């Protein structure tokens, strides 16, 4: 099974989780237009920060400070970044898919990249 990845910003003590998107592996994150947009946006919004992907199968912490044990205390900012992408006309959200009918907090977001759908995309 491929590693599941989390995008970690050790400078701001933030993380992006892909649990509510249909992606988790390196290939899925890079290939899914909404996930790739999420990563690109976050990186461009935080230039100079120490940001890296951390795999759940890695024994090596990629940063000079912090550790795997610190991750649970990092703020999870996935929804805020997705909301920014929606507000900027890059992503659109469809209906959420419940993973279990009796647990409404467990769902997948249906996000799609709409930036190229615009008549005249702007940078």
Secondary structural class: alpha+beta
- Point out poorly predicted stretches: none
Shape: globular
Largest sheet: 4 strands, mixed
Tally of distinct domains: 1
Q: Number of helical runs?
A: 3
- Average pLDDT level: 87
Over all CA atoms, what is the radius of gyration? 15 Å
Strand content: 15-25%
Order of strands across the main sheet: 3-1-2-4
Task: Report the span from N to C terminus.
Answer: 37 Å
Note the run of SSEs as H and E: EEHHEEHEEEE
User: Count the strands?
Assistant: 8
Helix content estimate: 10-25%
What characteristics describe this protein?
24% helix, 123 residues, 20% strand, alpha+beta, 4-stranded mixed β-sheet, single chain
Describe the structure.
The chain is of the alpha+beta class. The chain contains 3 helices and 8 strands, in the order ββααββαββββ. Strands 3-1-2-4 form a 4-stranded mixed beta sheet, with no helix packed on it. A two-stranded antiparallel sheet has the order 5-8. A two-stranded antiparallel ribbon has the order 6-7. 20% of the residues are buried.
In short, what is this structure?
With about 120 residues, the protein is α+β, with helices and mostly antiparallel strands. Helix content is about 25%, strand content about 20%.
How is the secondary structure organized here?
Elements: E1 5-9, E2 14-16, H1 26-31, H2 33-45, E3 51-55, E4 75-76, H3 78-87, E5 91-93, E6 97-98, E7 107-108, E8 111-113
Parallel strand pairs: 2-4
Antiparallel strand pairs: 1-2, 1-3, 5-8, 6-7
Helix pairs in contact: 2-3
